[in-house]
Amino acid sequence: MDIGIVIVLAVVLLVGLVNAEKTERPKWILMFKTPLSLLFIFAWTLQPAQNGHFTGIVLIALVCCLGGDVLLAFGSRGTFLLGLISFLLGHVMYAAAFFTVGNVGSTMAIGTILLMVAAAWVWRWLEPHLGNMCIPVLAYIVVISIMVCGAFGILGNPTLPPHARGTIVAGAILFYISDLFVARQRFVVGAHANRAFGLPLYYTAQFMLAFSAAWVPG
């Protein structure tokens, strides 16, 4: 299947998902969300891998995120916690992939400083609303921050193709921002706007990471 067809299908499913979210009915949400998330895994297969180790870890991350997508669709506290764990594992896998090819240098140092500031702000924003979810959410903030720092390490590796570096760091940042909308929906203000903005950012990030995995040389 052509990459262009995959993108068109993803856009159609995404529009359906955003509208299905208005119903707050898991059956309708899963009808669009499951094939859409499967599609970013399919996107991973469309190009031959140059670095089998890197792309293999990215695939595990994508599968973990697929599990998180399905679990979050049910909307209960229990499935939300399981979904959080599934996404946490996804971020751990992304971080592992990024650190295998990233450079520990000035670019990563700048990214670390920016992420520390962002994490402190996010924690200050969310903490009053978390109740007994403080520890899981704090762990999530730490892990996703490490993941984005790893992406900055890739950005700082001049031996990698510029389009791969730019796409990976952009995908990681969009993933981070999309999770802010998930947190706002769950803990601060429940509103359809969270999904209308967050879901496009999330799926854009996943497709960027799925496609760019094949661009990293061995």
The number of helical segments is 8
**Helix/strand/pairing class, anyone?**
mainly alpha
The H-and-E topology, N to C, reads as HHHHHHHH
Radius of gyration: 17 Å
Binned strand content: under 5%
Number of strands: 0
- How far apart are the first and last residues' alpha carbons, in Å? 25 Å
Described by strand count, sense and barrel closure, the largest sheet is: none
The low-confidence parts are none
Helix content: over 70%
| Basic shape | globular
Mean pLDDT: 94
Q: Can you give a write-up of this model?
A:
The radius of gyration is 17 Å and the shape is globular. It has helices spanning 3-20, 26-44, 52-72, 77-101, 106-126, 134-155, 162-188, 192-212. The mean pLDDT is 94. The protein starts with a helix and ends in a 6-residue tail after the last helix. It is an all-alpha fold and 218 residues long.
